[in-house]
């Protein structure tokens, strides 16, 4: 299960995620991001309560990064758990994504 909470102030969106980003829930996140990115130049994904991400979730992050970069915006991930950070490093996503 994945809980998504969004706040939008001017052109900056913050999306706080809680749970697992897997094959089942990645489409929910993708839908939310596709609705949010047109209205936001800057996007922050708060990973404080994400405990798992699958390849489907990684694909959503990559496509969202491309969309936001295409409009000269910035996407960043915050509060990434060490285990998830390990996945980002192992897959090379730590070189592609902005992680704070």
Describe the structure.
The chain is of the alpha/beta class and 100 residues long. The protein has a single domain, classed as Transcription Regulator spoIIAA (2-Layer Sandwich), CATH 3.30.750. It has 4 helices and 5 strands; from the N terminus they run E-E-H-E-H-E-H-H-E. A 5-stranded mixed β-sheet has the order 1-2-3-4-5. Helix 1 packs parallel to helix 2. It is globular, with a radius of gyration of 12 Å. The relative contact order is 0.18. The mean pLDDT is 95.
Instruction: Indicate the CATH topology.
Output: Transcription Regulator spoIIAA
Level-2 CATH architecture? 2-Layer Sandwich
What is the beta-strand fraction?
A: 35-45%
Low-confidence stretches: none
Question: How many domains would you count in the coordinates?
Answer: 1
Order of adjacent strands in the largest pleated sheet: 1-2-3-4-5
What is the number of helical segments per DSSP (H or I, 4+ residues)?
A: 4
Give the CATH class: Alpha Beta
**β-strand number:** 5
Spatial gap, N to C terminus: 25 Å
Overall pLDDT: 95
Order of helices and strands: EEHEHEHHE
Q: What is the CATH superfamily?
A: STAS domain
Shape: globular
Helix content: 40-55%
Radius of gyration: 12 Å
- Summing up helix and strand content along with how strands pair, one would put the structural category as alpha/beta
Sheet with most strands: 5 strands, mixed
What is the secondary structure topology, with strand pairs?
Blueprint (H helix, E strand, L loop, with lengths): L1 E8 L2 E10 L4 H11 L5 E12 L1 H16 L3 E5 L3 H10 L1 H4 L1 E2 L1
Parallel strand pairs: 2-3, 3-4, 4-5
Antiparallel strand pairs: 1-2
Helix pairs in contact: 1-2
């Amino acid at each position: 299960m994945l809980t998504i909470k969004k706040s939008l102030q001017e052109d900056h969106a913050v999306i706080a995620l809680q749970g697992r980003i897997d094959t089942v829930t990645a489409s929910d996140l993708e839908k939310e991001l596709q609705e949010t990115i047109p209205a936001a130049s800057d996007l922050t994904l708060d990973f404080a309560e994400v405990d798992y991400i699958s390849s489907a979730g990684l694909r959503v992050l990559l496509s969202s990064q491309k969309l936001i970069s295409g409009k000269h915006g910035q996407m960043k991930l915050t509060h990434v758990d060490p285990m998830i950070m390990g996945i980002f490093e192992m897959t090379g996503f730590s070189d592609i994504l902005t992680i704070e």
